[in-house]
């Protein structure tokens, strides 16, 4: 099981989200105005910890099983639609087999059936 960040059903990050923590100066007392040397002003500046690079709105961090398709694309193991799309032969090959008919069409049907069996629709 891997930690992933998912947005609209697509994996946008494998692993924890890269929040960026940084220090931001914050004045706790007002600036006294021009003509006051910084050394003479008790600035009251403190550093507050801020978080940058927020996770995109609607994205969710979760643990799930993932699969790397032949194309190198990382997909959710439960995403049968995209897993099938990655595994099917090119549409041009499918149409060519259909046009030829006979053994070529039967062979292509067997390949497509094997993909469907490997990545079944969820119940």
* Portion in strands: 25-35%
Biggest sheet, in brief?
3 strands, antiparallel
Helix content: 25-40%
Number of domains as seen in the coordinates: 3
Broad structural category: alpha+beta
Order of helices and strands: EEEEEEEHHH
User: What is the topology, as strand order, of the major beta sheet?
Assistant: 2-1-5
Intertermini distance = 21 Å
How would you characterize the overall build of this protein?
The structure is a single chain. By secondary structure, the protein is of the alpha+beta class. The chain is about 30% helix and about 30% strand. A three-stranded antiparallel beta sheet has the order 2-1-5, with no helix packed on it. Strand 6 and strand 7 form a beta hairpin. The model has no long low-confidence stretch (mean pLDDT about 85).
């Amino acid at each position: 099981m891997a930690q992933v960040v998912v947005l609209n059903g697509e994996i946008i990050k494998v692993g924890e989200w890269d929040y960026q923590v940084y220090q931001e100066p914050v004045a706790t007392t007002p600036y006294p105005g021009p003509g006051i040397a910084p050394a003479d002003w008790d600035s009251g500046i403190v550093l507050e910890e801020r978080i940058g690079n927020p996770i995109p709105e609607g994205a969710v961090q979760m643990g799930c099983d993932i699969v790397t398709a032949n194309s190198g694309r990382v997909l959710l193991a439960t995403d049968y639609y995209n897993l099938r799309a990655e595994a099917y032969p090119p549409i041009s090959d499918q149409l060519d087999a259909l046009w030829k008919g006979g053994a070529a069409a039967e062979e292509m049907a067997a390949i497509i059936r094997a993909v469907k069996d490997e990545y079944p629709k969820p119940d």
